[in-house]
Design a protein that fits this description.
Layout: H1 8-13, H2 51-54, H3 56-69, E1 73-77, H4 80-89, E2 96-100, H5 105-115, E3 121-125, H6 130-136, E4 142-148, H7 160-169, E5 173-177, H8 182-185, E6 195-199, E7 213-217, H9 222-234, H10 240-250, H11 253-271, E8 277-281, H12 291-297, E9 305-310, H13 313-323, E10 328-329, E11 339-342, H14 343-347, E12 357-361, H15 367-382
Parallel strand pairs: 2-3, 2-4, 4-5, 5-6, 10-11
Antiparallel strand pairs: 1-7, 6-7, 8-9, 9-12, 11-12
Helix pairs in contact: 3-10, 4-5, 4-9, 13-15
This protein binds pyridoxal-5'-phosphate.
Pyridoxal-5'-phosphate binds at residues 79-81, 84, 104, 107, 148, 152, 177, 179-180, 199, 201, 211, 213, 332-333.
Protein name: homocysteine desulfhydrase
Pfam family, one: Cys_Met_Meta_PP
InterPro entries: Cys/Met-Metab_PyrdxlP-dep_enz (IPR000277), Cys_met_metab_PP (IPR054542), PyrdxlP-dep_Trfase (IPR015424), PyrdxlP-dep_Trfase_major (IPR015421), PyrdxlP-dep_Trfase_small (IPR015422)
Length: 389
């Protein structure tokens, strides 16, 4: 279906327009077979041997994501963590990698706890500052620069094009965790990134009913071959039903992300300067960190994720999350239902997250209902709490 003129909304809505050749169904069947028949002449003319990394249920979702990202090839994984760690496992002992201080906390912990014991030299830096990146790069030894933008949960912005240029200058690859931005808002490969990764558990699926991860490459190369081998051999692959659900979720990606972004912008503006809110962290605010860069590299909005810092400190933040009713008190993000979370309780010591921070994942409910619920909870939570000046 897709040609160069086909817009991404149309590609997503029809999932590339694939029709099942046997039944003419416009949605694919859910393939469950774990194995495939060998031909009498001992060949596998179907091209498939075993389901682990050759599941037919991967094909369409991978092709759709490749088209939306403008890449060469996509691999599905069983979770965002499986996808992200495969990118690092594709490197070799002794390789030096740069990653940001502010990033998805579990991956930061994995890098410091596991990747280092496998011989990777991991250095965490302020990725939002190109001079820190330039100073940390080691020609010949730095093999990968990992960027997350907007970065969970402070929503700081990294300039993808500038960082890619620096990474390429020393022969390193640039990988972007684009979970919060999605291909609706940012296409990292067009900006010079070599790899783009998503926790598809979030917006790509959008319904909080599976875990999945994806990595898309701009080009075939030795590192990509190793990532492919990691998936096949480590075996962190997605199940058939989850692949099917992901494809279904992808069809409404553009509507969901645009709706969440529009509401997040309104919520950020409403609570900016609010007496019970010390700070609103959202790249769509003119005063926000990286707003100017975000305006260049994000299109159609700044995403559905924001954080607020309560004026009454940690106790008020926890009490606010305890009081909302429409905002559900739960971890994760990118679903159709809005979520609120006291992030420091999750990330624990060593995290750069302030204790008074609430992370908000904006869903597709009516924005006025979300504002009313949050304002009511803030008011109840701050009752009797002395505000900081
Ligand atoms: N990257 C980001 C930005 C995330 O928010 C998450 C999960 O919250 C992950 C990666 C990991 O994804 P998963 O939970 O699917 O393993």
């Amino acid at each position: 279906m897709a040609n160069d003129e086909t817009r991404p909304e149309s590609i997503a809505a029809q999932a590339l327009g694939w029709i099942d050749q046997t039944t003419r169904a416009i949605n694919p069947p859910i393939h469950m077979s774990s194995t495939f028949l060998r031909d009498a002449d001992n060949q596998y003319s179907s091209g498939r041997v075993y389901i682990r990394d050759q599941n037919p249920a991967f094909d369409q979702a991978e092709a759709v994501i490749t088209a939306l990202e403008g890449g060469h090839e996509t691999l599905l994984f069983a979770s965002g963590m499986a996808a992200a760690t495969a990118v690092f496992q594709g490197l070799r002992p002794g390789d030096h990698v740069l990653a940001p201080h502010v990033m998805y906390w579990s991956l930061r912990n994995w890098l410091l706890g596991f990747a280092t014991s496998w011989g990777l030299e991991v250095e965490l830096i302020d990725m939002t500052d190109p001079s820190s990146v330039a100073a940390a790069l080691r020609p010949g030894q730095t093999k990968l620069v990992w960027v997350e933008t907007p970065a969970n949960p402070l929503w700081t912005i990294t300039d993808i094009a500038a960082t890619a240029e620096l990474a390429h200058g020393v022969g390193a690859l640039l990988a972007v965790d684009s979970t919060a931005a999605t291909p609706v808002l940012t296409r990292p490969l067009e900006l010079g990134a070599d790899l783009v990764m998503h926790s598809a558990t979030k917006y790509l699926n959008g319904h909080s009913d599976l875990t999945a991860g994806t990595v898309t490459t701009r080009a075939e190369n030795e590192h990509w071959q190793r990532v492919r081998a990691v998936r096949a051999q480590n075996g962190g692959t997605l199940g058939s039903f989850e692949s099917w659900l992901l494809l279904r979720g992808l069809r409404t990606l553009y509507l969901r992300v645009r709706a969440a972004s529009t509401s997040a912008q309104l919520i950020a503006e409403y609570f900016y300067g609010h007496p019970l809110v010390a700070e609103v962290l959202y790249p769509g605010l003119a005063s926000a960190h990286g707003h100017e860069i975000a305006s260049r590299q994000m299109h159609d909005g700044y995403g559905g994720m924001l954080s607020i810092r309560t004026a009454g400190g940690e106790a008020a933040a926890i009490a606010t999350a305890a009081t909302t009713t429409l905002w559900k008190r739960a971890t994760s993000l990118g679903g159709v239902e809005s979520l609120i979370e006291h992030r420091a309780s999750v990330e624990g010591p060593g995290s750069p997250v302030p204790a008074d921070l609430l992370r908000l994942s904006v869903g597709i409910e009516h924005v006025d209902d979300l504002i009313t619920d949050l304002e009511h909870a803030l008011t109840v939570a701050h009752n009797g709490i002395e505000l900081r000046v």
